[in-house]
């Protein structure tokens, strides 16, 4: 068997890739690394890496030559959304390499995703209940609960360690590098500082919004739908959702709700826990609600207990958030507006958004159990990107999975190439 040589591209802002490299090398594999910015070097040091200093349009030729010259057999990267990663995944598949996509786990907390080829619209994981049942056969029940302590402070410090060298010196070493995020890191941090200073105010406003949403005019409980907002710059939105723009999706959802939802129902938007506060969700949503004549039926909460809200909701409207998985596990109706790995007949609502407002239907819990068993057995391992114990466990488990002779999801499960099809695109954007 040909010796395995892994090429690492960008990974999480943490020491995870370094420990993963050690785990692979202990099993006899070789590991190489291409750094595209100084932040990559921070978490790879003292290991050596090769620098890509060229322009984005030079990347495919550079990478193809690199793969040939170093006899690369496998490519490992964090997510498949960054432009360099998307092109690398396409090239790797075309060249017959094994492409492995790392991400936070579909299951939460304390799981990691390791998928062949890509995620969401590019995932090999089947959306046919029969195939899911076959993959689940004989697999153990999926354990619940967390294993590791998490620290937002550690996350923030790692993020600074990645971005500060890029901002101060990156232009000298990688003059053509552009951050994969939607805004400059300095702008991002300014948003976080503002959020920290207004924490108490935001909590009180969230409590008032949730209370108002739950009570109808006569004081009795009102049916409401929950829309858990994702991060506008998330590649799950930019590459795996109709229009690639969360603001447009929210606007279209409000328009649909105003036209078709029962008059007694409410719609609650919950801001993502790590949203940087720059999106202006409250102002955007309130303005759109007023324009569509539903200002008294739409609410925005930057806080609150997500699980409690799921349990009380009439249904969940999401693009492709993992909150959708949580809701399915709690037997609540879910509709996904974008590409989601759990968008399976029998689990999520398959009819129109118009119909969902009027008749949301709950999932098949037996199928959901099969889905979890199949998902955990093929794409998930225990571990995390932040925290010593989580990183150590994750690196060991991902390393073992990478060294398996065959992918757990066969190439016959690959989805057709080309631009993904989004079921609700025409309904949401009829003029497009």
Describe the structure in your own words.
The chain has 432 residues and is α/β, with parallel strands linked by helices. It has two domains: 5-150 and 379-407, Rossmann fold; 195-369, Rossmann fold, CATH 3.40.50. The chain is built from 17 helices and twelve strands. The chain has helices spanning 16-26, 38-44, 59-69, 83-94, 129-136, 152-173, 185-197, 199-214, 235-238, 246-260, 281-291, 306-312, 323-329, 353-358, 365-379, 388-402, 425-428; strands at residues 5-8, 30-35, 50-51, 74-78, 98-104, 111-116, 224-228, 266-270, 298-301, 315-318, 334-336, 380-382. A seven-stranded mixed beta sheet has the order 3-2-1-4-5-6-12. A five-stranded parallel beta sheet has the order 9-8-7-10-11. Strand 4, helix 4 and strand 5 (98-104) form a beta-alpha-beta unit. Helix 2 crosses helix 6, helix 3 packs across helix 4 (83-94) and helix 5 (129-136) crosses helix 15. The radius of gyration is 22 Å and the shape is globular.
Helix-strand string: EHEHEHEHEEHHHHEHHEHEHEHEHHEHH
Q: What integer is the average pLDDT? A: 91
- Any idea what the shape is? globular
Poorly predicted spans: none
Rg, Cα atoms, Å? 22 Å
CATH class of the largest domain: Alpha Beta
Q: How many DSSP H or I helices?
A: 17
Count of beta strands: 12
- Structural class of the helix and strand makeup? alpha/beta
Specify the helix fraction band. 40-55%
**Overall number of domains:** 2
Oligomer: single chain
Strand order of the largest sheet: 3-2-1-4-5-6-12
Give the end-to-end Cα distance, rounded to a whole number of Å.
Answer: 51 Å
Question: What's the main sheet like?
Answer: 7 strands, mixed
- Strand percentage lies at 5-15%
At CATH level 3, the topology of the largest domain is: Rossmann fold
Can you name the CATH architecture of the largest domain?
3-Layer(aba) Sandwich
